[in-house]
Amino acid sequence: MGLVDQRSDARWLLSHYTASERRVCGLMGMAASSYCYDSKRTDEPLRTKLVELAGEKPRFGYRRLHVLLRRSGERVNHKRLHRIYCEAGLRIRRKKRKHCVREGKPLVARTAANQEWALDFVHDAVACGRAIRVLSVVDAYTRECLALEVDTSFASRRVTRVLEQIIAERGVPQAIRCDNGPELTSRHFLAWCVERQIELLHIQPGKPTQNGRVESFNGRLREECLNLSWFQNLFDARRKITVWRKEYNEERPHSSLGYKTPTEFAAQAASFENMG
After folding, report:
1. For the segment 163-175, what is each residue's pLDDT rounded down to a tens digit?
2. Other Cβ atoms closer than 10 A to 35
3. In terms of C-beta density within 10 A (0-12 exposed, 13-18 middle, 19 or more buried), how is residue 179 classed?
4. How crowded is residue 213: how many other Cβ atoms within 10 Å of its Cβ?
5. What local confidence, expressed as pLDDT, does residue 155 receive?
6. Residue 184 pLDDT grade (very low, low, confident, very high; cuts 50, 70, 90)
């Protein structure tokens, strides 16, 4: 208990009970001189200076204001400054971050192509330092890379345009699994999925393992292509990444497919379906 609280309690006891100041102070464990002491120090000049400084720097907290006061030659204890800061109502109201609340969608074993497509973005840069983004689309069953679209930015309409191109070749998927990026949570993208009758599986924020298939693919893309390539410009990046996609689908053995290539596995699966 601080001295201020002790003096407040002592005053309350004296106002409610018939006892001497010395008796009450003894019960409170406080010296009578401390109870009677009346500080001649006033906080008003410091309060005025602090309010003026906070008006100039409205987004500064008391710690930064303390530094500015010390630079101006004002020597004040940080605890005293914090007390005056709070009493003057200068504390900053911080905005509470809005977190996207979504129910987890665990990975499900797929048994045929086009049951689920997985989407995600990878970031890199070209020689001049300009950032590029790569849209990855992977089939959850055959592990085929259906698209590797490269550009400097992606709007939701650009994403659906890429998906429309894939649908024209392969048909409509039953579900699409993706994260909560603005391109994949926009009204246009949501309406497009509803119109196409595609189930949209958004993963929970901060849990990329719920989209583990495309995350694993992006790891291979990073290690085997992006980290080993030097892109002169956007067109060079598109050319080299397209070459790697063809190699991934047709030449690279995939461990989870029994070391078949995705193209071989897809052809085998299609033949089994035709036989059935």
Report:
1. 999 999 999 999 9
2. 18
3. buried
4. 20
5. 93
6. very high
pLDDT value for 42: 75
Helix axes 78-87, 62-71, angle to 10 degrees: 120
Q: What rounded mean pLDDT belongs to the chain?
A: 87
CA distance 231 to 239: 9
Token pair for 123 = 């970031």
**CA trace torsion 230, 233, 238, 242 (10° rounding):** -30
CA 37, CA 119: separation in Å to the nearest integer?
Answer: 71
DSSP codes, 74-139 = ----HHHHHHHHHHTT----PPPPPPPP----------STTSEEEEEEEEEE-TTS-EEEEEEEEE
| Closest C-alpha to 200, from 163, 147, 162 | 163
Supply the pTM of this predicted model.
Answer: 0.65
